Amino acid sequence: MAVYNLGSINADRVYRVPHLPAPGETLAAVEYFSGLGGKGANQSVAAARAGARVVHIGAVGGDGGWMVDLLAGEGIDTAHIWCSAEPSGHAIINVDDAGENAIVIFPGANRALVAEHVVAGLIDAVPGDWLMLQNETNCQAEAALVARKMGMNVAYSAAPFDAMAVQTMLPLIKLLILNEVEATQLAGALGTGVQNLPVPRTIITKGAAGAVWLEQGKAPVEVPAFSVRVMDTTGAGDTFAGYVVAGLAGGLQVTEVLRRAAAAAALMVQKKGTAEAIPLLDEVMAFLNQ
Ligand code: RIB
């Protein structure tokens, strides 16, 4: 089945810093580079590199043609990436020596979508296809409603976390993807544990502690993380999510889906950068066969 992704496209401006800056502190970066990013674009690249047919729905400004070209170079269908009068989204990313990050995003064109863009983007979808969503665009609820009516499966990453947005999406989705911090924030906002959410399946990623798959009426499935030397964790969650949805769309069993996603994230954090650091399926399988 195909993967449709209504997702952000950002120019990532990455600064390697000795430590993440404190309030009021001015800090000199030791390295700077830029590249394609955005939670949506990263997830599309991950799903495509995992072998899925991916259609990306989103928007860039007049300054964003290079990002559309990079997505198209991955074999991603970019016909539904709209050109907005707003400037493209960008992200200021600080990464410290431990590979930890702090990110500020400027949404720009990512939040200039209208419902017609979403409807047009989903026009060729068929029942059983997947729709991926995150919180860096607008129109997520509109897209999920259309997708459900079409018999699609909806996967939603609650990032960046926004309690109101998550509550709107919960009744509309089949798969919720959270990291541990987001799971705690959501439990606090709802006053109940994530195992009690009205969602058929939830994945909680836990960094070095791996990930857990929760499915209503079934025992949890745990996957350990691989122990690797971390260079940069930026986009690791997006890589995991893209590999998960590609695996589900490809009909893989949950344990294999999670194993591949964990391996992809482990390979990704050993490199600098975001979209370009995401491994191909061949690399993931070679790593797993080691
Ligand atoms: O998850 C990492 C991503 O968050 C970066 O690529 C940045 O653009 C922000 O969207």
Report on the architecture of this protein.
- With 290 residues, this protein is α/β, with parallel strands linked by helices.
- It has one domain (3-289): 3-Layer(aba) Sandwich (UDP-N-acetylmuramoyl-L-alanine:D-glutamate ligase), CATH 3.40.1190.20.
- Helix content is 32%, strand content 25%.
- The chain has 9 helices and 13 strands.
- The protein has helices at residues 39-49, 65-73, 115-121, 140-149, 163-169, 180-190, 236-249, 254-268, 281-288; strands at 3-6, 10-16, 31-37, 54-60, 77-83, 89-95, 101-106, 130-133, 153-157, 175-179, 201-205, 211-215, 221-223.
- The strands form 2 sheets. The chain has a 9-stranded mixed β-sheet, with helices on both faces. It has a 4-stranded mixed β-sheet with strand order 3-2-6-7.
- Strand 11 and strand 12 (211-215) form a beta hairpin.
- Helix 1 packs across helix 7.
- It is globular.
- The chain starts with a strand and ends with a helix.
- The model has no long low-confidence stretch (mean pLDDT 96).
- The chain binds alpha-D-ribofuranose.
- Alpha-D-ribofuranose binds next to strand 2, helix 1 and strand 7.
Large-scale geometry: globular
- According to DSSP, the number of beta strands is 13
Give me the side-by-side strand order of the main sheet. 5-4-1-8-9-10-11-12-13
CATH architecture: 3-Layer(aba) Sandwich
CATH class: Alpha Beta
- Uncertain segments of ≥5 residues (pLDDT<50)? none
What radius of gyration results from the CA coordinates?
18 Å
% residues in beta strands:
15-25%
Task: Give helix and strand order, one letter per element, not per position.
Answer: EEEHEHEEEHEHEHEHEEEHHH
- Determine the number of helices (DSSP H or I, runs of at least 4 residues): 9
Query: What's the pLDDT, averaged over the residues?
Result: 96
Ligand set? alpha-D-ribofuranose
Largest sheet: 9 strands, mixed
CATH superfamily: Ribokinase
Q: Which secondary-structure class do the elements indicate?
A: alpha/beta
